[in-house]
Amino acid sequence: MIEIFVDADACPVVKIIERTASQFNVPVNLFCDTNHILTSDYARVFTTGAGADAVDIALINKCRKNDIVVTQDYGVASLALGKGTKAINQNGMIFTESNIDSLMFSRYLSKKMRMTKAKSHIKGPKKRCRQDDENFEKAFTELIKSQLNFDNT
What we know:
Blueprint: E1 4-7, H1 14-23, E2 28-33, E3 44-48, H2 54-62, E4 68-70, H3 74-82, E5 86-88, E6 94-95, H4 100-115, H5 130-151
Parallel strand pairs: 1-2, 1-4, 2-3, 4-5
Antiparallel strand pairs: 5-6
């Protein structure tokens, strides 16, 4: 049986994840640190210390091959893919072996630019809208279906 693991600190789609997963009777595990308070009637909630990457490490240690990881962190997605899980972000982008290297490299370049003394005017992400939620829900539903079909073969 597959499970869903969510990097839930500041995750805007937790309710969509719970609602969709419950339709397929798939367990959900929410991971957050002590700076966030999460409760759920459906999911198991795991709270870690607030140390750097504590949530990420706890999540990666629990997930298994063929599970689904929901994260906006490219590093977590990369580790999840390495364990044989499927990974998706909050906008419905599926992380794959084909795209993770370029995403990790862009993260590296962005961090490098932020650390320079020169002023940069890199815009942050655009404000979340209903279409983002719809895109996530559609992609997430298809991902669950594909994993359940894979799990049953």
